[in-house]
Amino acid sequence: MSAVEEIASQTPAVQAVPKRAMTLSAGTAFVIVLLLLVVPLFVKNFIIFQMTMLLIYGLAVLALNILTGGSGQFSLGNSAFYAIGAYTSAILMEQYNVNYALTLPVAGVICFGAGFLFGQPALRLSGVYLALATFALATAMPQILKLGFFEHWTGGVQGLVVTKPDAPFGLPMSQDMWLYYFTLAITIAIYVFSVNLLRSRSGRAFMAIRDNEIAASAMGIDVATYKTLAFGVSAGITGVAGGLGAIAVQFVAPDSYTITLAISLFLGMVVGGVGWLPGSFVGSAFIIFVPNIAEGISKGLSGAVFGVLLFLVIFLVPHGSRQVAMVAQQLLGKLRKN
Asked: Which ranges does the record mark as transmembrane (predicted)?
């Protein structure tokens, strides 16, 4: 018996993640979707814009969750793929007059290719070293976008202004409301795709690699292919989120996609719960609204207040919103029995 086979024989079989561990129950999901459909009808356009950004950042955090929570690969470079997706949509819309909806799959495909290619050399790295490599990618991307060679397309330091689309077919709704529902439809589609991906054979391979790479290889899983595939899928979803973000904000510039964005996405994943897909949107809400709350408490010390709030969240719920959801589920179960 070889060393690999001996290790594999001593390693317990990796079980597929239960359905409830990855997503919400059908009833809960229905109620949340219903609220997301109804609430914009009763709020102002600014609130609708914030809800749109929550969905967009939620997609980006979801993509990171697939990579880190699904395959166990740490990344601090997803802001680079977000920037590529944003610039792809902006350039196609403003310089080539491509319909905004058609730019999103193009952004996704380009980012999938970029992520897959980046995953090839990253195969030699893991843990902290992989995080540092992706950190370097995120740090370099804003400077790359400022290069004179790309200035004809990217607008250089000044960036590009993006035209927000009107509602089609003469629908009686504002631009913000139409873009929100458009984003919601794409978010639901990608969320369902992500859940099915993690439940599929490829998803089980991701999680096997995450739990024990040597054992996964001994079971016949092509570790190199699945690790690069995870990078590609994560980058592709992030690219779609970046394209939606460019359309929603109506502007792209290199300094909008710095390492701060990458850290925010990683923070959203941790607060939402690593490996729990619904938590991606809870984490998105945290990185959007908590800084505003901190600034409302103290404008001069908003950073310090945000740090204290973040420390309290990590200290009280170290497993993120997933831990809160599990406690709530247990309480509901006890109430039903009583």
From this structure: 21-41, 47-67, 74-92, 98-118, 125-145, 178-198, 229-253, 259-289, 301-318
Tally of domains within the chain: 1
Give pLDDT, residue 299: 80
Give the angle subtended at the CA of 17 by the CAs of 37 and 192, to the nearest 5°: 25
- Quick check: is 49 in a domain? yes
pLDDT of residue 178: 93
Q: What's the token pair of residue 7?
A: 């290790």
Buried b / exposed e along 160-185 (16+ C-beta atoms within 10 A): bebeeeeeeeeeeeebbbbbbbbbbe
At position 167, the amino acid (one-letter code) is A
pLDDT at residue number 22: 61
Q: Could you give phi then psi for residue 252, rounded to 5 degrees?
A: -130, 140
Per the structure block, which two tokens stand in for 262?
Answer: 């990458």
In a domain, 81, yes or no: yes
The parts of the chain modelled with pLDDT lower than 50 are 1-21
Length, in residues, of the chain: 338
CB 309 within 8 A of CB 292: no
Domain ranges, residue 76: 3-257
- The H-or-E segment that residue 160 falls in is strand 160-161
Give pLDDT, residue 181. 95
252 three-class SS: strand
Amino acid at position 314, single letter: I
Query: 85 and 241 in contact (C-beta within 8 Å)?
Result: yes
For the chain, report the end-to-end CA distance as a whole number of angstroms.
Answer: 55
Chain-centroid distance, C-alpha 72:
15
Cβ neighbors of 224 (< 8 A, separation 6 or more) are: 123
DSSP output for 5-68: HHHHHHSPPPPPPPHHHHS--HHHHHHHHHHHHHGGGGS-HHHHHHHHHHHHHHHHHHHHHIII
Q: Under DSSP, is residue 218 helix (H, G, I), strand (E, B) or coil?
A: helix
- Beta carbons of 277 and 268 less than 8 angstroms apart: no
pLDDT the model gives residue 47 = 92
Q: Is 170 a member of any domain?
A: yes
Is 36 part of a structural domain of the chain? yes
Report the predicted TM-score, pTM, of the whole model to 2 decimal places. 0.89
